[in-house]
Amino acid sequence: MPRIMVVLIAIFLSGCSVYHPIPLTSKEVNKSLLPPDTKYIKVQAHEIQHPILKPLEFDDRDGLSPDEAAILAVIANPELRAIRDRRDIARAQILQAGILPNPQLSATLEIPTGGATQGTINAYGLQLDWDIITALILRGSNIRAAKRQAESIELSIAWKEWQAAEAARIHWFRLAWLEKKLSLLDEEEELLSSNLEALKKGVSLGVKTGLDIAAAQATLQDVRQSRSALRRQMEKERCALNRSLGLPPDRHVTLQRGIDLTAWPPEKIPLTDLTSSLEDRRLDLMALRKGYESQEERLRSAILEQFPKIGIGLIRARDTGDVITTGGAVSFSIPLFDRNQGTIAIRRATRKQLYDEYAARLFGARAEIFSLTKELEGVRAEMAAVEQAVEAQQKLVDAFEQAIEQGNLDVVSLYHAKKDLIDKRLRLLDLYSTMTDLGVALETASGRIFPVGHEKPHPETRDGKWNGDEHEVNS
């Protein structure tokens, strides 16, 4: 008997989990927040498995592209780690759903202590009960519910990764356009500074006046103030990009040059292509559908639970007269009051909520796509008008310069015209930035990636057209 007990204890202990502490110390946390090395990133980018994002050859030696930024965010963003931990919870729930209940062993000992005890012995009783029948009936539904829930969680994680990737892309685009604006202001500041020096020489020669100097200085100061505000905005956007990429805020990220920002997003995308089969592309909708299927199984399980719970058992006993009995037992509950009606009502209401939430999310996604496409149309129409205004304003500035050379116009009018030209060119760049913001939003809403092409020989020049990358600067 002792040997059997030792064996049973050994078997029991061999299947038990062991506690391992994970200390929450600053050293360990800071270590976990270190960005991964380049080799690890390249391997993960090449092997990434995601319903939307595709593997790529990660190489940021020529600067970070929008696609590389999206992949890097998914790989290195520490905020996604806690979300991915839900996978382990889901796996544990599947494991729990398939575990059968333990048998229950009960023992009794009865010692004669009074009355006619002569010739009596101690009585005992052993009973082994197992609520196996009900557990087997429910096991299939519980496992299916846990698996559907795990699939829902997996899709929810992929949706969060997709959102993180799109956040990195939008910060990349914004920073790229801010660099172009800074390049424009640098060019204008250099030009105005040169003009101011020329005017000062003209004053010393008596061909220019102090009014000319004041007008040039005022315009130059406006450009410098705009440039200073733009640099602050760039630093804010750079920090946002680093955060989305999982990089320290002081890390300097160089953006890849030669990306054709003006042709993105593509113009001619039929609305039907964006909305058709949307429920099979939008990861949040797919996750909700799996969650709904899980709730269907939970409701099925709750309905099965309303029937009496059945248990079986074995009994062995000896009475005080030394008579030993062996037999079986069957137990079942009598559902007089609790017929699981509360759980059934809750799960039925939850299923209805998930159904309505899915329908509302699908409706909202379709409406969002329609709204974004209309906004893009409006931005493109405004861009066409601003481009014409830039061209007209440039011609006006050229005409004013000729008139001043002929002595037919004061320099104040010229510098007002130049300031208006700068404002219009900056407005055009703002519209391009808005267009890429809307493009990323449309990608997120439609569950599609629009390819980013390389630059044709065309970014912005002083006539408001795009021809070359002379204004590109490193991030």
From TrEMBL:
<dbReference type="GO" id="GO:0015562">
    <property type="term" value="F:efflux transmembrane transporter activity"/>
</dbReference>
<comment type="similarity">
    <text>Belongs to the outer membrane factor (OMF) (TC 1.B.17) family.</text>
</comment>
<protein>
    <submittedName>
        <fullName>Heavy metal RND efflux outer membrane protein, CzcC family</fullName>
    </submittedName>
</protein>
<dbReference type="InterPro" id="IPR003423">
    <property type="entry name" value="OMP_efflux"/>
</dbReference>
<feature type="region of interest" description="Disordered">
    <location>
        <begin position="451"/>
        <end position="475"/>
    </location>
</feature>
<dbReference type="InterPro" id="IPR010131">
    <property type="entry name" value="MdtP/NodT-like"/>
</dbReference>
<feature type="coiled-coil region">
    <location>
        <begin position="213"/>
        <end position="240"/>
    </location>
</feature>
<feature type="coiled-coil region">
    <location>
        <begin position="369"/>
        <end position="403"/>
    </location>
</feature>
<feature type="compositionally biased region" description="Basic and acidic residues">
    <location>
        <begin position="453"/>
        <end position="475"/>
    </location>
</feature>
<dbReference type="Pfam" id="PF02321">
    <property type="entry name" value="OEP"/>
</dbReference>
<keyword id="KW-0175">Coiled coil</keyword>
